[in-house]
Amino acid sequence: MTTSTSRDLITVLQTSLDGRILDADGGSDWVDSWADGLELLPPVDGFVLGAGMFPGYEQFWAAMLEDSAAAAEMLGRTPYPREIAYAETAAQTEHLVLSATLTDVAWPSARIVRSIEQIRTFKDDGDGTVYVVGGPTLVASLLDAGLLDELRLIVHPILVGAGRSITGVLRSPQHLQLVAAEPAAGGRVTLTYRLPQAR
Description:
By secondary structure, the protein is of the alpha/beta class. It has helices at about 35-40, 55-65, 70-75, 80-90, 115-125, 135-145, and strands at about 10-15, 20-25, 45-50, 95-100, 110-115, 130-135, 150-155, 165, 175-185, 190-195.
């Protein structure tokens, strides 16, 4: 269990009913908006991402604020108000990017960290909520290190067969405690699990 002076690290994954976060082609067409995860959380005072995800993440959310036409082209539609709200929050909130290879990040709110232990220090150095955006290798590493406090799943009513799941990169079994299961729009279900061993 975390202490009262420790930040909660929470991830939100959008998954198919058969547990895939990406299909066999590396896509996730069933996801309506990547802003939906943030809406499930209390106000956040930090984001954590892996190096593989960050460049596209930075490009997408920066375009949402700075180039609405480019953002609309990436989405194939006009951005939702909740996506603009996410971009505004992200622009003002610290991002830790775990990477052994990146040497620089352009986004002013981002900084590179080199180890899981630096994320542990950040977790222990305050209170509040940190959104672990991903990707799956980072989420699995935080689970294995006992640093993730909550795993929230947005389960979409689709079976995709082959594809990528988070379980393929976990090193050890994880025991979860179900906190909530709530129906959502479009046949989705939102599941919230606590990690009792988080520290």
